[in-house]
Design a protein that fits this description.
By secondary structure, this protein is α/β, with parallel strands linked by helices. It is about 30% helix and about 10% strand. It has one domain: Spore Coat Polysaccharide Biosynthesis Protein SpsA, Chain A (Alpha-Beta Complex), CATH 3.90.550. The longest helix has 18 residues.
Length: about 300
């Protein structure tokens, strides 16, 4: 990943009126104070990214009867990966912080920028939400509870294939996902049903790991191997997703077979690659400093 030059942002919170916030089912007090960040990678998602940011901000997980400010919801950072449309303007209009890449570096680099931001700003939980509208934000409270239930997971993935996926998944994509699931389940010795899902939530341990080292070519699949290598625990919850709203997938049907072959090769190579260890705290290094909203840095997909 290319080096980043970040400047500390002046963070401005945009609280929702009480009537606009969604009240979730009661949550334990050990979850409520957590600082939570939604990382939204986006490439030319004008027409949808603003709605995604608004939906995330409407998820204000608070016990029934509590004031909206008592239990903070998710802050949002949109990582604009070289868009040429109105993606940045839409995200900023909805109150999101924006990291801008001057050119496209790919989904892995975009997501890692979000994790670097989360680490530098002391977030306890980070969730990846695609900017194309596929991921339903209504599942965020359930994923958050699963992440903290008896400390059983370091990353929770929203799986389309534990139950009804919610939309018609193309045959080629479903076959590829099945192959990856079988291979990864054997390697990590636990059942993985949706290794290509980008709808993922992780705790501070995962943030520290992914800020330091995140796969760039096929991140969803390779990240599972990374978590297993570092002995971080993975859990899946059933979710339904939307068909893609606007824009286009970075993986189209004619390239599906080529994609599957390259991912399988990446899995094999990933078994032998050297892996950095997670950081306990952000170093005083430029790439881990904050990001000025709307500023450029040197240095997004379906599912």
């Amino acid at each position: 990943m290319a080096s980043h030059e970040y400047a500390r942002p002046n963070l401005t919170r945009h609280p929702l009126p009480v009537d606009d916030a969604q009240t979730c089912s009661p949550m334990s007090t050990d979850i409520s104070p957590l600082r939570k960040l939604a990382i939204v990678p986006a490439l030319n998602e004008a027409g949808m990214v603003g709605r995604v940011v608004r939906d995330i901000k409407n998820i204000n997980c608070r016990p029934a009867g509590a004031a909206s400010g008592d239990v903070p919801g998710f802050d949002v950072v949109v990582v604009d990966d070289g868009s040429t449309d109105g993606t940045v303007a839409e995200a900023e209009a909805q109150g999101a912080q924006v990291i801008r890449h001057p050119f496209n570096i790919g989904i892995g680099g975009a997501v890692q920028s979000g994790y670097k931001y989360a680490l530098a700003h002391g977030y306890d939980v980070a969730v990846q939400v695609d900017g194309d509208g596929q991921h339903k934000t209504e599942y965020l409270p359930e994923m958050l509870r699963a992440l903290h239930t008896e400390g059983a997971a370091d990353m929770v993935t929203g799986s389309r294939f534990l139950e009804d996926p919610g939309y018609k998944v193309p045959v080629g994509r479903r076959l590829g996902n099945l192959i990856f699931a079988v291979v990864l389940s054997g390697l990590v010795r636990r059942r993985i049903t949706d290794p290509t899902s980008g709808f993922r939530m992780t705790n501070r341990r995962g943030i520290e790991l992914f800020a330091r080292d995140y796969p760039h070519d096929y991140p969803e699949v390779e990240a599972i191997l990374m978590l297993h290598h570092h002995r971080l625990r993975i859990h899946e919850v059933p979710v339904r997703m939307n068909a893609r709203g606007f824009g286009r997938s970075s993986i189209d049907y004619p390239r599906s077979a080529f994609y599957m072959a390259k991912v399988l090769l990446a899995i094999f190579v990933g078994l032998f690659r050297r892996r950095p260890t997670p950081m306990d705290r952000p170093r005083a290094a430029p790439e881990l400093d904050g990001v000025t909203p709307g500023a450029s840095t040197s240095g997004a997909r379906e599912g």
